[in-house]
Amino acid sequence: MWMDTKATPEDDGGGRDKRTGFVHKLKLCTGDMLHLDSPLQDRWWVVQLLVWNLRGVARVILANNPLSGALILAALCWASPWSCVLGSVGLLCSTLTAVVTGQDRSEVRGGLHGFNGMLVSLLMGVFSSAGDWYWPLLVPAVLCSATCVLLFSALAPLLDRWDLPVAVFPLTSPSSCSCCAPGPSTPTSPTLGRPAGSSGRERHTAGRAAGSSGHSCGRGADLCLCRSGTVSAHPGAVLLYSPLLAVHALLGSAVGTVAGLSMDVRSSSLYSGLSGFNGALGCMAVGGLFFTFS
Q: Which terminus of the chain, N or C, has less C-beta within 10 A?
């Protein structure tokens, strides 16, 4: 009778093996995914370039996961195809410039020379007064993306003396030049004024603040420059790379949103996430990237 009711060890072992195999496959898709580097060395160079670029996209959210980069790129394409085209051109141009100029191969493989080019191209598209699908904008986007790599290589030896990362320093100079260089009558002149439809400082009612605070926190954690709703895509990409980093992103965005409410900032800035994304980036950098969590 005891032998009839006893579970066979083969069944238990098979169930555990399936669960263990699923968890192992899931872990392979998280983190840095460094196990991709060795197999890619024997693949076509185009495939390697694709993975390098996807890592560069993920670097925008302080991650280093090609799947996170693919998710961000898909969300960006869904929100604004023109921004996706601009960002992809800048990303590809900066990565190829790093390869041609002989930058450190480990940095190129990790996407460190791609995200600045992508960001400066996205900024040019967002601030341009020409609107979407203005193809001549690709020329300054390509030039500024290549300039980011040159500035990166020039600043790295200088900042290494103080043990400081280059980070987005190469982004600020080309972005400032692209905003200041065009005249006010050119199609690429920036529109840095008040958003359309806003009339001064808007008051926040208690009901609207309570009803939209969660959406504002999500938009604040939406760290790429999208103009329409991809609220869950980018926090999901951060979560895929590191759950700890995702918690810090939402925490920083929540604090920034509350600070914006307390300072009575413009409603269009608050509810679009502009008051939270700097807090999200700062909290991610301090709590999950440059310092050890304790």
A: C
φ, ψ for residue 164, nearest 5 deg:
-115, 140
Phi-psi region of 204 (alpha: psi -120 to 50; beta: other; left: phi over 0): beta
Q: Which two tokens stand for residue 66?
A: 């090609």
Q: What is the pLDDT of residues 165-186, one digit of tens each?
A: 777 777 777 766 666 666 555 5
What does R_g of the chain's alpha carbons equal in angstroms? 22
Q: What is the mean pLDDT of residues 86-111?
A: 90
Name the packing angle between helices 81-100 and 115-127 (round to 10°): 140
Task: Note the Cα 60 to chain centre separation in Å.
Answer: 3
Structure-block tokens of residue 118: 């992508």
What CA–CA distance (Å, rounded) separates 269 from 276? 9
Integer CA distances (angstroms), 277 to 11, 22, 152, 218, in order:
50, 34, 24, 9
Q: Report residue 58: phi and psi, to 5°.
A: -65, -25
pTM of the model: 0.73
Q: What are phi and psi of 190, to 5 degrees?
A: -75, 150
Task: Give, in degrees to the nearest 5, the angle at Cα 271 between 266 and 273.
Answer: 105
3-state SS track over the chain = CHHHHCCCHHHHHHHHHHHHHHHHHHHHCCCCCHHHHHHHCCCCHHHHHHHHHHHHHHHHHCCCCHHHHHHHHHHHHHHCHHHHHHHHHHHHHHHHHHHHCCCCHHHHHCCCCCHHHHHHHHHHHHHECCCCCCHHHHHHHHHHHHHHHHHHHHHHHHHHCCCCCCCCHHHHHHHHHHHHCCCCCCCCCECCCCCCCCCCCCCCCHHHHHHHHHHHHHHHHCCCCCCCCCCCHHHHHHHHHCHHHHHHHHHHHHHHHHHHHHCCCCHHHHHCCCCCHHHHHHHHHHHHHCCCCC
